[in-house]
Amino acid sequence: MQIYWTKINKIIDETPEVKTFLLDCPQDFTWEEGAHTHFALKGFNAAEKPNRSLIRHMSISTLPHEQSIGITTRIREKCSEFKTILKTINVGDEVAIFKTSSNVPLKREGKKVYLLSSGVGLATFRPLVLDYFKRADDVSGVHSLNIDSSTDYLFTDIFTSAADKEFTAMFVNNRKDYYEEVKKLAADKEGIFYVVGSDEFLLQNIELLRHEGIPDEQMMLDKHEWQLTEFFSLVQTN
Questions:
Q1: How do residues 42-61 score in pLDDT, each as one tens digit?
Q2: Which of 7, 44, 125, 136 is the most buried (most CB within 10 A)?
Q3: Domain 111-233 classified CATH 3.40.50.80?
Q4: For residue 167, what are the β-bridge partners?
Q5: What is the pTM for the complete model shown?
Q6: From-to residues of CATH 3.40.50.80 in the chain
Q7: Could you give the CA distance from residue 167 to residue 161 in angstroms, rounded to a whole number?
Q8: Beta partners for 19?
């Protein structure tokens, strides 16, 4: 396993609770849209066994052409040891990234893509939307639906509806409105539905999409291939 140590080159306050940490790109480090990585703080590998409290599984919220590795996360007032350290971290400090891969690249099958997310889960979709804007080949359109009760919506410079690009972006602040919108979107039985959020959020969306007639193979989850069968089996559909 290769560990890349790199420095923070910028910290962006996206909202009062959400920050993006932009990291220098190591020379041979590559990734694609929908990628995730293990993001670790200094000291995580100081002992014989890794200190897992200093490691988090994070989505990369940028694309390679932006020349920085973006890690976007919510940091609340009461938070874990990991995020407490992130509150005090500075530009120039070193962090580590390793085990990078992508479970949710943009599918180009001539169908419409629906991006369903909760809160900071939208960070996973930012690179997919940028990739679509850059090259819309074999994608008939993209619709993003994000639920965030804080109402401090993320990346509104990108997630703004644009008719000329066949792109729509919608934000809601409660679950009732969110699930009503998902039902409407599921009228497209050919669509590809990406879902990013907590495990509970994923399971609720799987159950709803199945109920509306969307088959599992048209649902894209940020899970490894070996996890998908087990994860889908957790939802009992009547």
A1: 999 888 888 999 999 999 99
A2: 125
A3: yes
A4: 142, 162
A5: 0.93
A6: 111-233
A7: 6
A8: 13, 73
